[in-house]
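Would you mind giving me a polypeptide sequence along with per-residue structure tokens?
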Amino acid sequence: MTEFRKSILALLPLFALTAFSTITAASAAEEIKLSNNQRIACGRGLNAGKLQNITCKSYAYIFNTKTSEFYRCQVNVGVTRDNKEVLKVDTDGSCKLKGRIFPSDSNYAFDATETEPPNTNSFFGSGGTAIWVADSTKLVAKGCIILGVGVGPDVMKCVDMTFDK
């Protein structure tokens, strides 16, 4: 056997391990999905001294399609400016674990949406969130509503869907 063949044979386990870890990473990446309902809200305000504040926030949901755990992520950007220049830019953001919808692992599809934040036109007060999760392997789904009640933690209730024939 030539030296070249020996070196190739010696490297085969390494190639196999690399390929397996790439496949494992790819399958793990398939388990994390971004919801299709990202929203953005912006506002402006005037401060003393003719300073203008501009703020925007956006949220999205990140969902684990295997475990049905989900995170609510929010990003905020605020700008303070005068008539000539931007004086300050503030940013922040984070993702908070909100829970698990189904108790067992499977293959789930997910979407989420929120009502508008409180304002003079907001019919729903402080607003709510609708979460829909369906099991991709069988005819099972849950509809969940999260309400920010203002005292204590948010209330999340899920209802098992029935399928009429």
